[in-house]
Structures are given as structure tokens and as C-alpha cells.
Design goal:
Layout lengths: L3 E9 L3 H14 L3 E8 L4 E9 L6
Antiparallel strand pairs: 1-3, 2-3
Length: 59
Amino acid sequence: MTKFEHRVETIKADRAQKLLDDTLGRLGEAGWELVCVEESYATLNLMLFFKRPLATTPA
């Protein structure tokens, strides 16, 4: 079974476009897959949830 590591990034919604492009590009190149985006109306933030397979070491 594949095991994953997870990561959460928070982005201010008022600056989302530039930061979103930069964040998705940088993390995508590092092997992270975006799995969910949540918007907080109270804080005006976007929370991006990522996962990527854990590196396996030979036994």
C-alpha cells in the first residue's frame, strides 16, 4: 500500500492569483499533488491541501 506525506499551504485570498500560480508550480515540480482547496470566509484565506508518495527505501 502506498503511504503519503501531506502538506497544507495557506494563501491570502486577496493576493491569491500570483501566489497560487507560484505555489502550484513550485510544489508541483517537487512532486506534490493538490487534492483539495478550502476557502475561509472568516479569514479570507485559501487553504491548499497537498499529498505526495513517501519515498521508499529498499529493505
